[in-house]
Amino acid sequence: MVTRNDVLCGFWPHATEQAARTLPGDPHVAAQNREPDQIRAAWQAHPAGPPPSITTVVPADLLLDGLTDETTLRDVGLQQDAADTRSIGDLVARQIEQADTVLLTGDADLDDAWEAEQLRVLLRRLAPWTDRRRPGEPVAAVTRGLRGYAVGAHEPVPEHGVAACVFRARRPLHPGRLHDALDEVTDGVLRSRGHFWLASRPDLVMTWESAGGLTLGPHSGWLAELPDEHWAEVDPERRLAATLDWDPYYGDRHHQLAFVGIDLDPVRIHRTLDRCLLTDDELSRGEQHWRALPDPFRRTYLTRAQP
């Protein structure tokens, strides 16, 4: 049962408004440029009643176009402020990932039943945690792994053409080789997200996010670099996850990157990223050598369109 405390999100107003008219109860319809976690954060700042349950409404005939749209919200006048650099693809992906429930509409009207099921599988791969999250708690998809949550589903065997995989590793990525491999890694990927670390910047957690375009950038420091007296200032879930998975050499440094796509080749993605990791020889030279490696990512965020 939908209640007055429930919120409908979605990039396409016609779909959310139609759902609001047909669903029982009286749900609130959020602005089309709002993400579920922004709504949760607003509720936490001024709680009134129980936390909202958020449903993202996705029209079947527009889902793929939305995920791959690299047009910025600024280009269509939907940016929230001057610092809003999101693309339409970013927003659509985040609205799906952050929802408590995802409602696919119009799938019964598609001519091809196989295509309709493909879209349902895609949504399950994009947000495998929907209907299983704690209401009211924002957890950004790109940093879920730092807090011990799954960053995605590892389903490398395609179902209706949809495959998903998660890349995990400890040793750092070589900045030059990763930069050169970005087109290959993201080829055919509808959505990717997670965190990683570069040998040239061993003190930084880097985030990775793509939907239409790819954005990489610094997020925070690793706890391995944090003095003991400051650990109490860190989110308890992140402290617990780091402690349980602590490595005697790397500390809490690691990669967790999730990829979802249609006709995706998980083996190719894993092999490409494996080649970007430091070799045994490079690893043995130590951190001072790593920091001196040529780094195309240094001092900048990288935003680029996917092929």
Report on the architecture of this protein.
- With 307 residues, this protein is α/β, with parallel strands linked by helices.
- The chain folds into two domains: 6-138, no CATH class; 145-305, CobW-like, C-terminal domain (Hypothetical Protein Yjia, Chain: A,domain 2).
- It is built from ten helices and eleven strands.
- It has helices at residues 13-22, 36-45, 63-67, 88-97, 113-126, 175-186, 236-244, 266-276, 280-284, 287-291, and strands at 6-9, 28-29, 53-59, 101-105, 155-159, 162-169, 191-196, 204-211, 213-221, 255-262, 302-305.
- The strands form two sheets. Strands 5-6-10-7-8-9-11 form a seven-stranded antiparallel β-sheet, with helices on both faces. Strands 2-1-3-4 form a four-stranded parallel β-sheet, covered by helices on one side.
- The radius of gyration is 20 Å and the shape is globular.
